[in-house]
Design a protein that fits this description.
Layout: E1 5-10, H1 21-35, E2 39-45, H2 52-55, E3 58-59, E4 67-70, E5 73-76, E6 78-83, E7 90-95, H3 97-100, H4 117-135, E8 141-145, H5 151-156, E9 170-175, H6 187-193, H7 207-214, E10 220-223, H8 230-238, E11 242-244
Parallel strand pairs: 1-2, 1-8, 2-7, 8-9, 9-10, 10-11
Antiparallel strand pairs: 3-6, 4-5, 6-7
Enzyme class: transferase
Protein name: starch synthase
Pfam family, one: Glyco_transf_5
């Protein structure tokens, strides 16, 4: 079914990240849908490891310049864009000096999770939503990949609930075995600042509990990894949301 507008929100994509299943799957899904005549856009964080020179990223001035307020602090939103190497598929990068300049993704050199991972996820989610609105491009399908993207449906169904912009978009969540890590214990106050409360994940805020929480805010949950770890598999089996077992890339458009 061509001519759909498909938005991929991801934390990993080949060749910007290599050697992970998620990065490979997102690349193949996006390219397949693009080559079949759909209007595809990809959004991801501009982590410090991603070389702007190598991948020819450039800032989109008309989209940059917004500020995202997190916990009463203004954080400038910078949008960069590049074409996937060798393809005419646009990838947008959410950037901010405070949150994404560092080279490691989520953990410091000692293996400790960054204390602001929660704020980085909030900034990423809200940055994607605000940029899509500024593009004046309304997706038919939003496909989420990676734990940071799980904040997007939570925000869409709470903070942005009265905003009709995304009301017809169907949201797909892919589950992957990502390394779990606790999130800041005061994340509840940061979300409360955006009038978000009552989430089960706040009892034990972590990468995994927010992914599991987001299952209740999407239209379809699908296995991104063929075999999920015990907690994710249990949540997958118990969710009341429509779900799909692992699909190879050639079959992914069945979901859409």
């Amino acid at each position: 079914m061509p001519n759909q507008k498909i938005l991929y929100i991801t934390t990993e994509m080949y060749p910007y990240q290599e050697d992970t299943n998620m990065a490979a799957v997102v690349n193949k899904m996006a390219l397949k849908m693009h080559n079949e005549g759909n209007d595809v856009r990809v959004f991801m964080p501009r982590f410090g490891q991603i070389s702007e020179r190598k991948f020819q990223l450039h800032e989109v001035i008309r989209l940059s310049g917004m500020n995202i307020i997190i916990n009463d602090l203004d954080q400038p939103l910078i949008i960069k864009v590049a074409s996937l190497p060798g393809e005419r598929l646009q990838v947008y990068f959410i950037d901010n000096e405070e949150y994404f300049k560092r080279k490691p993704y989520y953990f410091d050199d000692e293996g400790n999770p960054f204390e602001d991972n929660d704020e980085r996820a909030i900034f990423f989610a809200r940055g994607v939503i605000e940029t899509i609105k500024k593009l004046n491009w309304v997706p038919d399908v939003i496909h989420l990949n990676g734990w940071m993207s799980s904040f997007v449906p939570i925000y869409l169904k709470t903070y942005y609930e009265s905003d009709s912009y995304f009301k017809d978009a169907k949201i797909v969540l892919s589950l992957y075995n990502e390394k779990d890590a606790p999130l800041a214990s005061n994340i509840d106050s940061k979300l409360k600042f955006d009038n978000i409360s009552g989430l089960k994940a706040l009892d034990n805020p972590s990468v995994k509990t927010f992914v599991i929480e987001s299952m209740d805010y999407v239209d379809v949950v699908v296995k991104g990894d063929e075999f999920l770890d015990e907690d994710l598999d249990k949540a997958f089996n118990e969710t009341a949301t429509s779900k799909s077992e692992y699909l190879d890339v050639d079959s992914i458009n069945q979901l859409y």
